[in-house]
Amino acid sequence: MLRDFFIALSENQTLNAAAKRYGLKMGAQHVVAGTTVEETIESIKKLNAMGISATVDNLGEFVFEREEALAAKEQILAVVDAINEHQVDAHISLKPSQLGLDIDYDFALENLREIVDHASKTDIFINIDMESNKHLQPSFDILDELSKDYDNVGTVIQAYFFRAEEDIEKYKNFRLRIVKGAYKEPAEVAYQTKEEIDANYIQLIEYHLMNGKFTSIATHDHNVINHVKQFVKDHNISTDKFEFQMLYGFRTDMQKELANEGYNFCVYVPFGQDWYGYFMRRLAERPQNMNLVVKQVFTK
Ligand code: FAD
């Protein structure tokens, strides 16, 4: 299956390392905002001008050296400073594995604490992105620890996990992003069919809209978006209780349309040299995105 093929490519560490050396290639520049903080701030300014906010992700995976995790932390702190300096409408998304979760839990926790603490001083929200199953519980543990001291932190619920229903109940007082789930997970822990995942996704969104704090509905699926529009209308849920999110470069017409209709809209803005794994997962989700690659080859 193409999905499995691209997921395998995304996890190939040799290809990940090689891609870092070559800058944005293969069409990745359509879905990655830049390789530097400066380029990324410029992209965010353009989104803000259209009434769209941003959540910024410093790309990076397969971090097994402390130096790499510390460098990622410094880069994220620099993004927080740049958001303040340029007064752009943006917050941060980060991955615990990039900050050392595969090296040592306490080391990752301290790196995240430093970022959340720094961001809390200017009220910048930090979203802990959710990765594959092996990172799931430790990431929730980190959230539990940090939320004892800070309220500018939240996370993601992945609808393909059987445990998502329990998690959303437990974390209903948090700002949550709800997604279908991007990794390949085994049948012991996750729904496998699109129908099951979509049904659970809708159920979780409705639950958090009705019972929870702020909800970020992160999807490119127009059926889900239309369903949510009708649901909030039927239940008189005010637009300041939720936002739609999409990835940078995807369905840009729909992004503008939703923002123009008056919905809060936030774009996930990935940047950095470590773009390869991210790009491959996007191809895995939607092989039609290969168009980006093909176009690039023919328009060089
Ligand atoms: P899909 O199920 O991929 O698509 C449903 C339908 O929508 C398609 O059949 C098609 O008709 C239409 N469609 C989809 N994409 C397009 C397109 N580009 N153009 C035209 N039509 C399209 N996953 C995680 O595991 N952890 C995270 O922390 C995480 N954060 C995310 C943050 C954001 C902002 C977003 C948008 C996604 C995130 N994801 C994350 C990924 C997510 O889990 C899904 O893998 C991904 O969004 C694909 O699912 P979908 O809901 O967009 O719709």
TrEMBL record:
Organism of this sequence: Chryseomicrobium palamuruense
Its EC number(s): 1.5.5.2
Domain of life, per lineage? Bacteria
InterPro entries named among the record's database cross-references: FAD-linked_oxidoreductase-like (IPR029041), PRODH_bac_arc (IPR008219), Proline_DH_dom (IPR002872), Proline_oxidase (IPR015659)
- Do the record's keywords include Manganese? no
Asked whether the keyword Nucleotide-binding is assigned, the reply is yes
Would you tell me the protein name for this molecule? proline dehydrogenase
| Top EC class for this record | oxidoreductase
Instruction: State the reactions this protein catalyses.
Output: L-proline + a quinone = (S)-1-pyrroline-5-carboxylate + a quinol + H(+)
Q: Which residues form the Proline dehydrogenase domain?
A: 41-290
Q: List required co-factors.
A: FAD
Instruction: Tell me which UniProt keywords the record has, alphabetically.
Output: FAD, Flavoprotein, Nucleotide-binding, Oxidoreductase, Proline metabolism
